[in-house]
Design brief:
Length: 462
């Protein structure tokens, strides 16, 4: 079954390549536009490329495959509408193709980012970043180029804006693909994506140039460049790519620039409204508004990440620092003056054996509370596991001795658990930080010496 499916997919890819070669050969022979060649076969190849992308192997990121498939489908729909209107008097909705072509770029941008990076869960920030970059750079394009382009191209401001938007979108995609290629020059996916986007970009630029100089005629051989580029993009999903982890930095930088551009455009608009085209102003407002939303989401995620980090460094039973945080604080102590105490309760095991683990947990919480009351500010008290605790006390050695004595005194009177008076003691190993290694091991040795002596505090000595 799996072998048959693999063969079917292989035939699908070969069919795409075969139909593309066939169309190029027929176009080279028949120079006049025909419905069969330019409406049906041309667009069928585009839809077949979308199908090839959709059925690409499962090692792909799901969102990359979906996004690139949707982009190719939209381009194919826009192409179908355009070619239909070229052959038939009953024109379809003229703005539909423009909408499809506009949506093609952010979808390819998003798919490109997901296809060339380490797989991870989709985050709202990724989608917002793509929209912000699209709106921000659209605003910049309209501000810098629209007025000068209006003098050269015929048509409304919106049609001229789209004419310059497409090649700029191509160049943005090409730049990103080129960047990834330099990072992963041997990855088949990087090579195919760069080749596909480069061919698509050159075709777009050639179309724009010939249209501006009245040299373009419908159904030229050069139009197959779009199909070749799309076929390469679809084929890239059938090959493994080098997975890198720089996308968040790239997107973050691009988003920041887009927001800055939009802020400058809004400032210029406030100073001289006539200097900024309406299209640029609308895009700039959208960019700034979405950037504010993105900032709010980023702050919320940062707070959540900080909370999660704190939870991983806290002992769930007692609320004290856990072993992970204790070891981190011990590393930070370095060569500073300070004392390390290692504590082990005496008589705790019998409580667990006679009253049960729930009573033992209650006892640990009460003992932790007593210890916390005598720990000076700036020190770290942690439960290291079971009935073992650790204390890091910055400052002179005398401070460590005083804290050890205070801890011992907290257990001189009994604790009440489930109506039972319980008396436990504590053995403390104390070591003064001399900047050397194995502080914890030395404290552990002193603590066991104290335990053998029946409790109390023992200072480690060489």
């Amino acid at each position: 079954m799996a072998m048959g499916t693999a063969r079917s997919y292989q035939r699908l890819r070969l069919s795409l390549a075969g139909l593309l070669v066939l169309h190029i050969l027929l176009r080279s022979i028949f120079h006049q536009p025909t419905v069969l060649l330019d409406l049906y076969l041309f667009n069928a190849i585009a839809f077949l490329a979308a199908t090839t992308a959709f059925f690409s192997p499962p090692f792909n990121d799901h969102f990359a495959r979906t996004s690139l498939t949707a982009a190719i489908v939209l381009w194919a729909l826009g192409s179908t509408e355009t070619t239909w209107n070229s052959f038939y008097a009953t024109a379809l909705w003229n703005n539909f193709s423009d909408l499809c072509y506009i949506l093609f770029y952010p979808l390819v941008l998003f798919g490109l980012i997901r296809a060339l990076t380490v797989h991870r869960e989709l985050r709202a920030m990724e989608i917002l970043d793509v929209i912000i970059i699209t709106c921000g750079f659209s605003s910049l394009i309209a501000t810098l180029l629209l007025k000068s382009a209006m003098k050269r191209f015929d048509g409304s401001s919106s049609s001229v804006f789209l004419s310059i938007l497409y090649p700029v979108g191509d160049l943005v995609l090409f730049t990103l693909a080129l960047f990834y290629f330099f990072l992963e020059p041997k990855a088949a996916r990087s090579i195919l994506l760069l080749g596909g986007i480069a061919i698509f970009t050159v075709t777009d630029l050639y179309f724009l140039y010939t249209s501006a100089n009245s040299g373009y005629s419908f159904a030229q051989l050069s139009d197959d460049g779009w199909l070749i580029g799309i076929a390469f993009i679809a084929e890239s999903l059938w090959h493994h790519g080098g997975e890198i982890q720089l996308s968040e930095r790239i997107m973050g930088a691009a988003t920041t620039f887009a927001m800055i551009f939009s802020g400058v455009i809004l400032t210029l608009s406030a100073l001289n409204r006539a200097a900024i085209p309406s299209a640029a102003l609308i895009a700039a407002i959208m960019t700034v508004a979405l950037s504010v939303i993105r900032l709010a989401i980023a702050l919320q995620e940062a707070r959540g990440a900080r909370t999660n980090l704190e939870l991983t460094r806290i002992d769930e039973l007692t609320g004290l620092a856990n072993r992970r945080r204790f070891m981190s604080e011990l590393e930070l102590l370095g060569s500073q003056m300070g004392t390390l105490l290692l504590l082990d309760l005496d008589g705790f095991k019998s409580v667990n054996d006679t009253l049960g683990h729930d009573a033992g947990d209650t006892l640990l919480r009460q003992i932790s509370l007593r210890f916390s009351r005598v720990i000076p500010q700036g020190s770290t008290l942690a439960r290291l596991g079971g009935d073992e605790f650790g204390v890091i006390i910055p400052g002179p050695a005398r401070s460590g001795l005083e804290v050890a004595m205070a801890i011992s005194s907290t257990l001189t009177y009994p604790l009440i658990v489930e109506g039972n008076e319980i008396q436990v003691g504590v053995s403390i190993g104390r070591v003064i930080n001399d900047g050397g290694d194995e502080l914890l091991k030395r404290a552990d040795s002193a603590m066991y010496e104290a335990k053998r002596a029946g409790g109390g505090t023992v200072l480690w000595k060489p």
